[in-house]
User: Fold these one by one.
Assistant:
Number 1:
Amino acid sequence: MKQALPETTTGTIYALAAFILWGILPVYWKLLHAVPAGEILAHRIFWSAVFVTAVLLYIGRKNFHSLLRDRRNRISLVLTGTLIGVNWFTYIFAVHTDRIVEASMGYYINPLISILLGLIVLKERLNRLQWIALILALIGVLLITVQFGRIPWIALVLSITFGLYGLIKKIMNLDALSSLGIETLLLAPIAGSFIILQAVNGNGAFLITGYKIDILLIFSGAITALPLYWFAQGARRIPLSRIGFLQYLAPTLMLLIGIIAYREPFTSVHVMSFGLIWTALALYTISLIRSSKYIERRMRKK
């Protein structure tokens, strides 16, 4: 009889799988380079709705009505659906326009944006390390802005939309997978109408370009939902400090793919800017570990 893996080991495997898949997703979207970003987004939304609904029905989670019954939940889900739609489009656009490096920057600074939102919206207090981390990250973004004469808007849009998405989920205490199902279902009629309109006008790629493109578009729903489900399973089983550390795996893989596989430029300015952001993230991780240990000590005393 096989011995079951410890919960923390299972959680770590789930979290690793999620972050690795998120990190290599640029390769998937690159395979769809012939399809416009707007059409990919429409398929991603539509097939995500189909896939997530099927999964929720399979695992017996049918709390759609209870989530939608509350007016605050409905408003929140419309907001989160819009935010995740903007985030997905920006990410696909970044891959299509050979700006994976900038996209990776967005996911590196996302935890720091979350800290800033916590400070502004939730009135959370920051410790010294977190303040230093925020200032270093800001200097890193300003450095690349001044040197290249343009704001890294892709990085900022990705980090801010995902940060706001997480904030609303935290405030409303919404289940990740169920709420994603409703978000995509709310957007699915718009996405489906766009897909049909493109097909009628002869501009769509689906069922025209070839079966390989069709398969990739259909499975865009699965590769969107699966890592989110794995992440939720991992987050339930392992400490926040470990999640905080593992989450840097995704943007690191994205950065390496952008530089090595697709030969995107990574200049000395990038090195300095990313260096500041990486230092900020190291300080942030240390602060997470410290606070986690402090909470554990308090729990033991009780």
Note: The mean pLDDT is 85.
Number 2:
Amino acid sequence: MKIARFSRVGFILAAAGSAVGLGNIWKFPYITGEYGGGAFVLVYLITVLTIGFSIMIAEMLIGYLGRMDAARSFEKLAPKNAKTWRLAGMMGIWAGILIMTFYSVVIGWILHYIVVAFSTLPSCVKEAEVAFNTLLHEDIMTQIFYHTLSFLFISAILVRGIKAGIEKLNLILMPLLFIIVGGMFLYALTLDGFAQAWHFMFSPDWSKLSSEAFVVAVGHAFFTLSLGMGAILTYSASLPKEVNLVQSSLIVVALDTIIALLAGLMLFTFLYQYGAEPSKGPGLVFISLPATFYAMGTLGNIFAILFFFALAFAGLTSAVSLTEPMVQYLIDKYSITRLKAVMIAGGFFYLVGIVALASNSSSFSQMLTFGSKNFFNWVDYITAAFMLPFGGLLMAIFIGYKIPKEQVFAVLGKNLGRGFEFWYFILRYIAPIALIIVMLNLLGVIKF
């Protein structure tokens, strides 16, 4: 089945939309401060421009050469071992749709907080904590309602296809995301708390730059770029033939990194300015920040609305890219309409997502907890600790060892120039070792 084509700008914004997700805003700022500030940023930038960049080009190249869904692109490029390499594509497809089972729930939380921002924000951290915990553990129906809205919006975009749906969404939401984050950052520059935020994120503390910090940097550089889940590969199958893969990769990496840095500085400026304690993950976004916005008065309500809209934009553009690989696979594999494929893929993450959100509730947590984690956390752990890094590892091996070097050079040589050999060396040797270490660390096999 013929795949509709992205424009060059549309592809870059779609790929950036895939990369710029919730992790940029609620994870990157905190781990930067936790692992040495400027020292960590330096290591992170090096890993992004080497390991992350090398894997992104490899994933783009598979889609660009294969011109099919993730599984069939591998099959087409490795006909002698088609069934074996098909599993590499399926790994990414399933990773994306499994992540969506809890990602859609989190987007639902964000949509709920947009409504909260329009009404009454919690007046202190304690009140914000009680409100979020009530939502998470007691109010299942509210979560299902907003999870349903998330599902319906994502499905509506996917049904419209590459040009009218995915590309158009990113052409609208990504510029709006940059405008909102950029505008709030400019305001943060005028506050006294900006100096503290800058110190928290960028003042180098070399004592914190441990081996664990290197592993965290590699892991986050990999995950924040949406690698190993088939999204970049699937989007790349719709690229124009004349596109410069290297330049496109650099732009996506740059946009992803810039948003993470601006968001971190802006958020921590607000926290320090109004006396809130930095926290990690959902606690930063749904507890610390709402109370901080309340302390800002009327302006805080406006900023809260803008911030949660920006967060929703980041989440929705990533969600679309997480689901599209499964949609395209179903279309190619079973020759069904896009509507049916979207309903199957969307129905899966929607129904399993209800199980995931129920596992956080006091009513069902005991039933849906297995060992040390509930269902929600197990899906998060399995995808992050195994499926994504292993999928990226397979892509590095595939381009580095399975596809003839001459074929790779024919596409990338002109754009990489003398840097081709350096990139190829990183892809074949450095990236696989780094991803294996990250995977073993996340699985708990090795500790630093």
Note: The radius of gyration is 21 Å.
Number 3:
Amino acid sequence: MHRFYVDKDQIQGDTIQIVGSDVNHIRNVLRMKPDDELIICNGQGKDYYCIIRKMSDGKITVQKLKEQETGTELKTKITLFQGLPNKDKMELIIQKAVELGVYDIVPVITKRVIVKLEDRKKEMKKLERWQAIAENAAKQSGRGVIPKIHTVKTFTEALGLCGQLDLGLIPYENAQGIGYTKDIMNSLKNYPTVGVFIGPEGGFEEFEIIEAKENKIEPITLGKRILRTETAGLAVLSMMMLSLEEE
């Protein structure tokens, strides 16, 4: 069954209004008609099974038949603090992180970040594109939540945000053995919220690791091999997903 997302202000009792580009997709691409059924997601973990009642050029009205939890979200909310990578790697990271269940993503400027976002307008354009990628990835993977892409933060600001979470982790090549990482992964269900820091190309400076530890963020190893920035986040998120996924 086809699935679409709406904002909460489009839901009024048992009636939901579909507007924007989805109207054209439903009418002219999928060629759906009144009495056809579809799934509407509120982007906050709830699905509505609906039937189309009215269609016009700018709006489609559907009626809720039943509602239920989406059932595809991890119980622990994971925030990815991603050091800004070069070129278009961030787009791949966002897409795959959303597929793996991340709750939100915070782009971070660290010491070794090469990318410069000095123009506010260019930054906002990037954020709009990144958010669209997150939404498309959420649709494709059947997510009940569209992860939020935050505005770019400094490393210190990111540490402050992570300090509000229940657990903070920072993969680092000089961290202690993989056994400790396994223990952390096995304990994730005890933490409602977890933050994970990933460095840009070149990784973290030593003083950044020290600062992270001072903020109670745990260094962990991802193994004996050095992973690229676009690989490291996906590796740790895959480990976390395996630990947190339920039957």
Note: The two ends are 23 Å apart (CA to CA).
